[in-house]
Write a structure and sequence with these properties.
phosphoribosyl-ATP diphosphatase activity; cytoplasm; mainly alpha; Helix Hairpins; HisE; ATP binding; single chain; nucleotide-binding
């Protein structure tokens, strides 16, 4: 159940629904709305995640974080990126302090 491949399977599902009919696919509806519609959903899900955290409701935190990740994956697909691209970046940062990582961004 905690298999990391769920991200890859979800990315494949998102990819397959990008060009579906908007009346039959939520993903297609978001893609049809363009980047602004996708970004609006990410902002909404971010706010809901924040509120769940402020309320201390762990079940709701998990639920809202799943929604946030899902919508971030739609944004990745919009830009022709995949979860593997993000995982590679996280791997690059592994073992690096946040201060080091931030410094590496300003020097590049």
């Amino acid at each position: 159940m905690s298999d990391i491949n769920i991200l890859r399977r979800l990315a494949q599902t998102i990819e397959s629904r990008k060009s579906a009919e908007t009346n039959s696919s939520y993903v297609a509806k978001l893609f049809h709305g363009g980047q602004d519609k996708i970004l609006k959903k990410i902002a909404e899900e971010s706010a809901e995640t924040i509120m769940a955290s402020k309320d201390g409701n762990t079940g709701q935190i998990i639920y809202e974080t799943a929604d946030l990740w899902f919508h971030c994956m739609i944004l990745l697909a919009f830009h022709e990126l995949s979860p593997d691209d993000v995982l590679k970046e996280l791997e690059r940062r592994e073992g690096m302090s946040g201060i080091q990582e931030k410094a590496s961004r300003t020097s590049n």
